[in-house]
C-alpha cells in the first residue's frame, strides 16, 4: 500500500459508519513513511469528511505524536471525534469552518489559530489539503506547526524596528549601508526622515551624494571611496539640502565591513568573486547636527562676547566660589583669572558697607531674584573704586546652580557728577549772587554818572551781568530737564506743540511773523521737553534776526515709511545764519578750542532730540537763513 493509498483509505479499511475503535488503527504504511509520520516535528492529522450526514461531519482518523504533543491530547481523546468534541463548541466550530472552506473550495487552505492551554497560549500555522479520489473531497490532510516562538521573534523584531525608528526620529539619526557586491545603497527610516524623502525611498549612491552641498560633494565621494578601497573610516560634518528644500548640517560617519567579517556572521555571499577578502560593504550613520551646530556657534559667540565685554563679569557656584572671571573683571580688580578662580568675591570687599548690606544681597539672590546696587570695592592694590553691580542667579530645573555678577566701573562717572554738582552750585548760587551784586552796582553807577560815555559802559556791565545770570539759570534748567527718565510711551501732538510755542513768542515779539505749517494729526514720540527745545530754537532765531520784521516758520511733516516711521519738526528763519564754528560743533557732537558755541540753546535742543531717539541737523535756508531740523520717531502703532 502506498502513502496515497493510506491517505485515501483513512489508514484502514473500516467503513466510516463502523463503531469508534478504542485506539488508533494499525497502519499499512511502509516503514519509512510510518517513521517519518511518527517522528516529524510538525503535527500531522487526517480528517474524514462524511458527506452523507445532514451536515458535513469532520472526524479525526489519524494523528501523529507531534499532534498529540502540541494539542496536549492523546490519540484516544481525538480519533473518530469531531472538532467540537475535541476542542469545545467555540473553538471546534471555528476549526470546522476552516475544514468546510477547504472542502467547498477544493483547494489548499492555510490559516493561523491560537489555542489556550493551562500553562500558556500557543499559535499554530495550519495547512489543509483536500483529497479527492473520485472528484469528491473525502479526506483532508492537515499539517500544523507551532509558530509561537517565531511570532514572538517577529513581534520582537517589529518592536525593535519601531524602537529604532522612533529613536532615530527623536535623535535625528539614521543608518545606511552600501553593499559593494550588489552595488546597492540602503537607508533606514531615520535617514529618510533626515533628508525628508518618502517612506521606502531607496537612492543610488549618486542620488545620495546629490543631497549634499555642491562644494561638499567631491569630499563625501572621496571619503566613501577611501573607505571602500583603503578601509579608512571617516567622521565628517557637511552641508546638505533636504528634499523639502531645507538647508541642514549633517554629520556623516562611515566604516568598512570586510568580507571576512561578513562571512563570520553568516553572510551567504562570503568573500569576493575572486575568493579574496576585501571590503564587502560600508556601513554608517547620519545625524542632523544643525541645531547643535547653531548652539555651538551661539556659545562661541557668547564666550567671545563675554571675554571681550567692557564690563567685568564673574561667575560663582551656589556657595559663592569663583569659577570664572573675564579680562575686564581682572583689569578692574587687579586679580587675574588664575588668582581669582577658587576664591570668594569678598576679595574685593572694601569695608565701606555693613553686614546688613550683604545680608540683603544674599537674601535677594537666594530667592531667585536679581540684586542691583552701587557698591564700593577695593582693588588688589588697595585702591577704592565704584561700580554699578548686578548679581543674578542661574537656575536649572528650578535649582540655582550658579550666580553671575556684572559690574560697570563708575568711579570716573561719580567724580564727574560730583564736579558737575559743585559747578552747578557755583553757577546757580555763587555766580548768580555775584552777578546780582555787579548788576546792582552798575545800575547805581549809571544813574549817578553824568558822562554819557561812562553811562554807556555802566549799561554794558549791567547787560552782561544779566546775560550771565540768565545763562546760569538756563544751565540749571538744562540739568533739571535730564534728571528725569524718559517715558517710552510718551506721545505729543506736533501741531498742538508748535502752535503753543508760536503763541508764546507772538506775545513777546508782536512785530514778528511767526507761522505754523503742520498737519492736523501728526504725533511724535516725545514729551514736554520737546517744547523746551523748540523755545530755545525760536528764541535764538528771533534774538539774532537782522531784518524787520523777523520771520520764523514752525513746521512738521511725516517722512519715511515701512515699519519705522519718522517726523521732521523744523524751525526755519531768514536771519544771518548760525556761525560756522557753532554749527560745526553741534554737527560733530563735541566742542573744541576752534569749534564751539556761544550759548547752550542748540546743545539743549540736540540733547532733547537724542533722548527721544532722534537727531538734529542744520541746513541753509534758501535764499537766506537757517533750517534746524528735528527728526523724531512716531509711535509704532502709527508708523
TrEMBL record:
Its EC number is 2.7.13.3. GO terms for molecular function: protein histidine kinase activity. SMART domains: HATPase_c, PAC, PAS. The keyword Transferase applies. CDD domains: PAS (cd00130). SUPFAM superfamilies: ATPase domain of HSP90 chaperone/DNA topoisomerase II/histidine kinase, PYP-like sensor domain (PAS domain). Pfam families: HATPase_c, PAS, PAS_3, PAS_4. It comes from the Archaea. It catalyses: ATP + protein L-histidine = ADP + protein N-phospho-L-histidine. Keywords: Kinase, Phosphoprotein, Transferase. Residues 298-342 form the PAS domain. Coiled coil: none annotated. The keyword Transferase applies. Residues 1-29, 254-279 are annotated as: Disordered. Gene3D superfamilies: Histidine kinase-like ATPase, C-terminal domain, PAS domain. Residues 109-159, 369-422 form the PAC domain. It is an enzyme of class 2 (transferase). Residues 426-636 form the Histidine kinase domain. This is histidine kinase. It comes from Halosimplex carlsbadense 2-9-1. The lineage of its organism: Archaea, Methanobacteriati, Methanobacteriota, Stenosarchaea group, Halobacteria.
Amino acid at each position: 500500500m502506498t502513502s496515497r493509498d493510506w491517505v485515501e483509505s483513512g489508514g484502514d479499511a473500516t467503513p466510516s459508519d463502523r463503531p469508534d475503535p478504542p485506539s488508533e488503527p494499525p497502519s499499512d504504511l511502509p516503514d519509512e513513511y510510518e517513521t517519518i509520520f511518527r517522528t516529524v516535528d510538525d503535527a500531522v492529522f487526517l480528517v474524514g469528511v462524511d458527506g452523507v450526514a445532514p451536515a458535513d461531519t469532520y472526524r479525526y482518523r489519524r494523528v501523529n505524536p507531534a499532534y498529540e504533543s502540541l494539542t496536549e491530547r492523546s490519540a484516544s481523546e481525538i480519533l473518530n471525534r469531531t472538532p467540537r468534541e475535541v476542542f469545545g463548541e467555540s473553538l471546534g466550530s471555528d476549526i470546522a469552518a476552516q475544514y468546510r472552506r477547504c472542502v467547498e473550495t477544493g483547494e489548499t487552505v492555510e490559516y493561523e489559530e491560537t489555542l489556550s492551554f493551562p500553562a500558556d497560549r500557543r499559535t499554530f500555522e495550519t495547512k489543509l489539503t483536500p483529497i479527492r479520489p473520485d472528484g469528491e473531497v473525502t479526506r483532508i490532510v492537515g499539517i500544523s506547526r507551532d509558530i509561537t516562538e517565531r511570532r514572538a521573534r517577529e513581534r520582537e523584531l517589529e518592536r525593535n524596528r519601531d524602537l529604532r525608528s522612533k529613536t532615530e526620529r527623536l535623535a535625528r539619526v539614521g543608518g545606511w549601508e552600501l553593499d559593494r557586491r550588489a552595488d546597492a545603497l540602503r537607508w533606514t527610516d531615520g535617514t529618510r526622515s533626515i533628508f525628508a524623502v518618502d517612506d521606502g525611498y531607496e537612492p543610488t549612491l549618486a542620488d545620495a551624494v546629490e543631497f549634499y552641498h555642491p562644494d561638499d560633494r567631491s569630499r563625501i565621494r572621496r571619503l566613501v571611496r577611501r573607505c571602500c578601497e583603503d578601509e579608512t573610516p571617516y567622521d565628517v560634518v557637511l552641508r546638505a539640502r533636504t528634499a523639502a528644500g531645507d538647508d541642514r548640517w549633517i554629520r556623516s560617519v562611515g566604516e568598512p565591513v570586510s568580507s571576512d567579517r561578513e562571512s563570520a556572521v553568516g553572510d551567504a555571499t562570503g568573500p569576493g568573486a575572486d575568493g579574496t577578502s576585501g571590503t564587502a560593504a560600508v556601513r554608517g550613520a547620519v545625524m542632523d547636527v544643525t541645531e547643535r551646530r547653531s548652539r555651538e556657534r551661539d556659545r562661541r559667540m557668547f564666550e567671545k562676547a563675554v571675554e571681550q565685554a567692557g564690563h567685568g563679569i564673574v561667575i560663582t557656584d551656589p556657595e559663592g566660589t569663583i569659577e570664572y572671571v573675564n579680562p575686564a573683571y581682572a583689569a578692574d580688580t587687579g586679580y587675574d583669572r588664575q588668582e581669582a578662580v577658587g576664591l570668594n568675591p569678598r576679595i574685593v570687599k572694601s569695608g565701606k558697607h555693613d553686614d546688613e548690606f550683604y545680608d540683603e544681597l544674599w537674601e535677594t539672590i537666594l530667592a531667585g531674584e536679581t540684586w542691583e546696587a552701587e557698591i564700593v570695592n577695593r582693588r588688589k592694590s588697595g585702591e577704592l573704586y565704584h561700580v554699578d553691580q548686578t548679581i543674578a542667579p542661574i537656575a536649572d530645573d528650578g535649582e540655582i546652580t550658579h550666580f553671575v555678577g556684572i559690574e560697570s566701573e563708575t568711579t570716573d562717572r561719580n567724580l564727574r557728577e560730583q564736579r558737575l554738582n559743585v559747578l552747578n552750585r557755583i553757577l546757580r548760587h555763587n555766580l548768580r549772587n555775584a552777578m546780582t551784586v555787579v548788576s546792582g552796582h552798575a545800575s547805581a553807577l549809571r544813574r549817578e554818572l553824568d558822562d554819557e560815555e561812562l553811562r554807556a559802559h555802566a549799561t554794558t556791565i549791567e547787560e552782561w551781568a544779566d546775560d550771565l545770570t540768565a545763562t546760569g539759570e538756563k544751565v540749571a534748567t538744562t540739568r533739571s530737564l535730564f534728571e528725569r527718565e524718559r517715558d517710552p510711551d510718551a506721545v505729543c501732538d506736533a501741531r498742538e506743540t508748535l502752535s503753543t510755542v508760536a503763541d508764546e513768542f507772538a506775545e513777546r515779539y508782536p512785530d514778528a511773523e511767526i507761522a505754523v505749517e503742520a498737519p492736523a494729526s501728526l504725533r511724535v514720540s516725545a514729551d514736554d521737553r520737546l517744547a523746551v527745545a523748540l523755545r530755545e530754537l525760536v528764541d535764538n532765531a528771533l534774538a539774532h534776526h537782522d531784518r524787520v520784521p523777523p520771520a520764523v516758520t514752525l513746521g512738521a511733516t511725516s517722512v519715511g515709511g515701512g515699519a519705522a516711521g519718522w517726523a521732521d519738526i523744523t524751525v526755519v528763519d531768514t536771519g544771518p545764519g548760525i556761525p560756522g564754528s557753532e554749527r560745526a560743533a553741534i554737527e560733530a557732537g563735541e566742542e573744541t578750542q576752534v569749534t564751539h558755541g556761544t550759548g547752550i540753546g542748540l546743545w539743549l535742543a540736540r540733547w532733547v532730540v537724542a533722548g527721544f531717539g532722534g537727531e538734529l541737523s542744520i541746513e541753509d535756508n534758501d535764499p537766506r537763513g537757517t533750517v534746524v531740523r528735528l527728526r523724531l520717531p512716531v509711535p509704532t502703532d502709527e508708523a
